[in-house]
Specification:
167 residues, mainly alpha, 74% helix
Length: 167
């Protein structure tokens, strides 16, 4: 493990730790994001920013890594650190949703499924990137990670359509 990857590992771990602390803090009502910024609550802006980042940056990464192989490490850093930061923003939104009062409690269906799939992406991507565990066969973890990513895109589309009342 070279120095850049080692630094990326610790930065990634720090982002995950901050995500966990902020999630626990929201679940314990240490802070609130119920205030509005324009049309939406602050936590909704976080999920919009995080989701748009993931939705756009991941395909860009996938395309560029094939064409700019000399920049692979920088692209991987962009992918890992950027997506973990987006997961942090989405986690803040999710924990804000599940801590709403009973009278205003959201329907969790597609949002819960989407959050679980996103956590599976982190759970499959982190060990794959940092070689923490070896896959059963070469490429198995990559196959799982890509498959879960495709599920993420399908679910995000369904979630948005559901949120807009189309389905």
């Amino acid at each position: 493990m070279g120095l850049p990857r080692k630094n990326d590992f610790w930065l990634s771990l720090l982002i995950i730790l901050i995500t966990i602390i902020l999630a626990i803090g929201r679940l314990l009502n240490w802070y609130s994001l119920g205030f509005f910024i324009g049309l939406f609550r602050a936590s909704h802006w976080f999920v919009i920013i995080g989701s748009i980042y993931i939705a756009i940056a991941t395909p860009i990464f996938s395309i560029l890594k094939r064409h700019l192989q000399t920049k692979y490490e920088a692209l991987m850093r962009f992918h890992v650190i950027g997506n973990l930061s987006a997961v942090l923003l989405v986690t803040i939104h999710f924990t804000s949703q599940v801590t709403r009062p009973t009278a205003n409690y959201p329907e969790l269906g597609t949002g819960l499924a989407l959050y679980v799939v996103m956590l599976l992406l982190v759970a499959s991507g982190f060990p794959y990137r940092f070689r923490i565990i070896q896959p059963l066969k070469t490429g198995t973890n990559r196959l799982v990670h890509v498959g879960v990513a495709l599920s993420f895109y399908l679910l995000i589309g369904i979630h948005v359509l559901h949120g807009l009342g189309v389905i």
